[in-house]
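Slack export, channel: ligand-projects

TW: morning all. Re-posting the request from yesterday since it got buried. We need the structure predicted with the small molecule present, not the apo form. The ligand is zinc ion; the SMILES is in the block with the sequence. No rush, but it would help planning for next week.
GE: picking it up
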Amino acid sequence: MITNLETAPIVLDNNYLCPYCGANLSILGEKETDVEHVIGRRFLPKGFLDGEWNFIIRACKKCNGEKAKLEGGISVISLIDQAPAANVELRNELKRKLGKKDAITGKFRGANHPETNKPIALSGIKENIEFSFSNFKVSVALSGPPQAMKSELLLSTYHIQGFYYLIANIESNDASLTKASSEKCLFLPSNLVVPLFSLKKTDWGNVSAQELISRTSSWETCFRLVTGKGFFKCIMRRDPSKSKSPIFWALEWNNNLRIIGMIREQGQPDMVEQNLPSAKFINIDSSTRICEEIPLPEHDDTLFLI
Ligand SMILES: [Zn+2]
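GE: finished. pasting the full token output, ligand included:
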């Protein structure tokens, strides 16, 4: 088990497979590889990773670039709801990342949405819903913060592949380990990482996700991480009764977004995933329904505890 990693980063500089696509880095050559921080340096608010744990590894340039682009956008999206008005540090960080209009060109300069490539500051959801109510026709304008579900799931896959590379290739209980070397090279293909839930803080109490967390709570923790001043968390658990167990995993980004899933074959859900209760939907009309969000009281939140 690798857990409580709250010290200096672990640097692994002799891995010969890209942890994300499995490309042989020794064939690619120096120019096609990069030093990769599994938790991107700009993913958390500025300075939050200084002196804190990270995993630094070699990766191919293509994966490193694609992951950095996702992290740039999702970092901002996850902070939008999480920077309370009272927290000046986070509000300023968010403002800086969102950017502003260039006075000369009139163009907006700031972080782009990872899916639309347009500025996130201009990417809020605006949707008009019209529905009939008795004899009245009611029109509701829903607006909300920008979302990037597809990118969130993709980024969670990168993070889980990165940490899996660590637990599969480096056997150590030594939390002070800072420089690692690996003869082994076990790589986790991205199609075995199956994200199941993407939840904002307002919906951490989602009944379906909570049930899965509860069913796997007795599993053996094989990786636990709280770093970046608590703004990045990860846990992985395996069923000790099975020799080839699926792995339950969860990530928490910027004290807001949680992505929860399994490592297993696609299309082959484990027993713990069967018959999960479904989330409650509220019908707006016969064709429109919204999912009810359920916040989670802090004392009921045990996900990242051992
Ligand atoms: Zn790669």
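GE: first-pass observations. Residues 2-70+147-300 form one domain. The radius of gyration is 21 Å.
TW: perfect, thank you
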